[in-house]
Amino acid sequence: MNTTQPLPPPLLQLEHISLSFKAVKAITNISFAVQPGEICALIGPNGAGKSSLLNVINGVYRPDEGAISYNGETLHIMQPQHAAERGIARTFQNIALFKGMTVLDNVLTGRNLHVHSSWLEQVFNLGRAPQEAVRQRKKAEEIIDFLDIQPWRNSVVGNLPYGLQKRVELGRALAAEPKLLLLDEPMAGMNAEEKQEMSRFILATQREFTTTIVLIEHDIGVVMTLSNHVVVLDYGKKIGDGKPEEVRQNPQVIAAYLGTKH
Amino acid sequence: MSFFFEVLVGGLLAGVMYSLVAIGFVLIYKASGVFNFAQGSMVLFSALTFVSLLERGYPFWLAFLLSLLIMLVLAWAIERWVLRKLVNRSPITLFMATLGLSYIIEGLAQSLWGAQVHGLDLGINDEPFEVFGLLLSQFDLFASAVAGTLVIILSIFFNKTRTGIALRAVADDPLAALAVGINLQRLWLIVWAVAGFVGLVAGLLWGARLGVQFSLSLVVLKALPVLIIGGFTSITGCIVGGLIIGASEKLAEIFIGPYLGGGIENWFPYVLAMLFLLVRPAGLFGERQIERV
Question: Which of A92, A97, A112 sits opposite B182 (nearest CB)?
Fold first, then answer.
């Protein structure tokens, strides 16, 4: 590791986070930091606590212990809405799109927090409303172009194939112009070609929007090429944390993944 | 022939009264995918509050505003103590909650204001008068005008503002709506408050017709066929469904009734709704559910 270059303060820092559901400990004393601009992958076997950890970060779950610092602010209680207001956007493991709405409308809901005109202005299309509507629409179209989903702009999302829905969900998250993007298995259930495409979009997001990304992924090959930083969980505990190359050499990680003796 | 038109138009106007009740259901259904069993109680509660204030000597507009305020407080209380705890639960859970709410609201209304029957005079003459050779009820015309205005205001509000799009998002997936920063609590408060307002308007018009009493909460039963025909998610559907129910039940009563011994007005709408269910389960304007298997 290059120690001569001082690290900037982390964008996200988890300190001693623990979470349990009744008697089941989902997460035990996990700490790690995410640097601004990096892609951090959370990996680990099923049930290792990855999704739970993501849910803690955006406030769906409240940790029993520990604190989260985000962008210099330490929060003990985060709520999904607060997270969204602070620039944290996410996608879900089982796609959570608004299925009855079109692709464009879905992406537009992502702009929700960037709407500032009041409902009266919107009703009468006065004041800030008309300009704002144009601005939101323009931004949404940019995202749609970026993700190459123009042909389906006006299709109802529920009718689209799975891979496209995953892309629309990413679009809705990007529309919020997030500082931190949480992706829960963005490539689950995809074939090799679709995975490659999604990887390209994720890398392009990091590059073009300088978004910091935390993602969960099972495909180790994808993780190694995509991420700058890998955190490995097993049974709710952190067993590895570092650059992809380092983590790959870690005997504990190899054991967890290949199922050799613990 | 002029008699036919008189029945038809009379039926259409009566149908608007059904639409008025149905709109309250649609609002809440759109926001939470739940059939609000308590809508009838809200109609009763608001009408009873208004009438009681009126009888205590409050002027009409003050009584109206106070009733509205009380409905807002009720909506706030429902959001704060019931709905907020049930975010992300299944629709059946929410439905059961509205079932419980309906009894609470009904009980509250009667313990606050008593259970006796109140007459309500809105100061509108119910004498029929002639338009283009047809005898029409002045009260029905007034009710239609009120319903029409209400629908226009609601449509503008829900189509032109981001509340409308947020509403659809919340109905589709509350968790995802939270994640994009939609304020679920505020939205539910708005919707229940608007449903309370619609309930108040419906309660006043129906109360003036039937008297304000317990059975007022049962007018919502006639809203069911309206919703089935119009679709649970469309305000336009409410109006069209109401018109269809109103016109068909009156025409059926007059022209088919005599062959069946009369009184068919009471059950005809339900038979009609059942036929609609067979042909078009989502209703005329409802969103058709698409399920990928």
Answer: A112
Q: Do B181 and A100 touch (CB under 8 A)?
A: no
Structural domain boundaries in chain A: 1-87+180-187+212-262, 95-177
Query: What are the two backbone dihedrals, phi and then psi, of residue B289, each rounded to the nearest 5 degrees?
Result: -80, 130
| Residue B45 near residue B184, CB atoms below 8 Å | no
SS3 at position A212: strand
Looking at the domain assignment, is residue B202 inside a domain?
yes
Q: What is the dihedral of CA B26, A133, B182, A190, to 10 degrees?
A: 100
A179 and chain B in contact, CB less than 8 A: no
CB-based contact (8 Å) between A238 and chain B? no
pTM of the model: 0.78
Architecture (CATH level 2) of domain A1-87+180-187+212-262: 3-Layer(aba) Sandwich (3.40)
Give the pLDDT of chain B (293 residues) as one tens digit per residue: 778 888 898 889 888 889 988 998 988 888 777 889 999 999 999 999 999 999 999 999 999 999 999 999 999 999 889 988 887 788 889 899 999 999 999 999 989 888 888 888 887 777 777 777 777 788 888 888 988 898 888 888 877 777 877 887 887 788 888 888 888 888 888 888 999 999 999 999 988 888 888 888 888 888 899 999 998 888 888 889 999 999 999 999 988 888 888 788 889 999 999 999 998 888 888 766 655 45
Q: What token pair was written down for B81? A: 């103590």
